[in-house]
Structures are given as structure tokens and as C-alpha cells.
Q: What sequence folds into this?
């Protein structure tokens, strides 16, 4: 006999928060909290510490996104982007090397852009790779992230 499903998940839209203007500051925080639960085994946490850094940055330069960005990188990426957002008025993300990106990272980037707009700051995604654009188009967020196929190679 089938077990009773959690009624709280039926009809749940994981992207519904995108249209919430009231909770824009908490969106990235909620996303980061769900990326790596507190109950994760110590082995996973230790393995995560040895993974490559999701971004590399220096002041007055674009933040270079790593080629592979998955949900395992969201927590670390969130912390680094938050620090950069607090210290700079204009953030440039270089997405030219991205070969694989998942929904969680794209959601984090949308939350970053929404938070930046609310703070009067600017976030731009420079040189998005074809895989980046393809993933954004597939999820219907390319307009929100302001990445388009036509503009990808002109800079």
C-alpha cells in the first residue's frame, strides 16, 4: 500500500519566490540553507572543503565562474557572492568558462541580481558560454539574468 505523501509539497512551485518582491533579501539565504543541510555527514562536509573554489575574484576585476557549477557549490558560492555584494557597487560575473550549470546555481544568480537591484547595485553576467545560455533558456530565466544568445560574442 502506498504511503501518504506530504501534502505540503503537492502543487509546490520551487520558482514561485522569483516573483515575491517582499522576500527578495531572504531568497538567496533560503536557497543556501537548503543546499547543504545541517545534518550532512562529516565525510560530505570534508569532501566539500577539498572541492575547487566555485569563484575566484579580486577587486576591480570580473568574478570568474568555475566551469562546473552544481548544487554542491551553492553554499560556498553564496557566501563569496554575498561578500562581494557588500564590498562592491558593481559586480561582473565572467561566465565564459561555464560548461555545466544547474538550477540551484541559476536560482542563486537570480536572487543575487534581485538583491543587488534592491540595494541599488549592478550585477552583469559577461561572456556567458553557450551552455550557460542554453540552461538559462531551458529554465526560462535568460531574460531575468539578462543573457541572450545574440549578445554573447560581441564583447
A:
Amino acid at each position: 500500500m502506498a504511503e501518504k505523501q506530504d501534502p505540503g509539497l503537492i502543487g509546490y512551485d520551487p520558482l514561485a519566490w522569483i516573483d515575491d518582491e517582499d522576500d527578495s533579501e531572504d531568497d538567496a539565504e533560503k536557497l543556501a540553507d537548503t543546499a547543504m543541510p545541517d545534518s550532512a555527514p562529516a565525510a560530505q562536509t570534508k569532501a566539500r572543503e577539498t572541492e575547487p573554489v566555485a569563484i575566484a575574484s579580486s577587486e576591480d576585476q570580473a568574478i570568474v565562474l568555475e566551469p562546473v557549477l552544481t548544487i554542491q557549490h551553492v553554499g560556498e558560492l553564496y557566501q563569496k557572492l554575498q561578500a562581494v555584494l557588500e564590498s562592491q557597487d558593481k559586480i561582473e560575473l565572467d561566465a565564459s568558462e561555464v560548461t555545466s550549470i544547474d538550477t540551484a546555481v541559476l536560482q542563486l544568480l537570480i536572487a543575487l541580481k534581485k538583491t543587488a537591484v534592491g540595494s541599488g547595485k549592478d550585477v552583469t553576467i559577461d561572456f556567458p558560454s553557450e551552455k550557460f545560455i542554453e540552461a538559462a533558456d531551458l529554465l526560462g530565466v535568460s531574460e531575468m539574468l539578462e543573457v541572450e544568445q545574440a549578445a554573447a560574442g560581441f564583447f
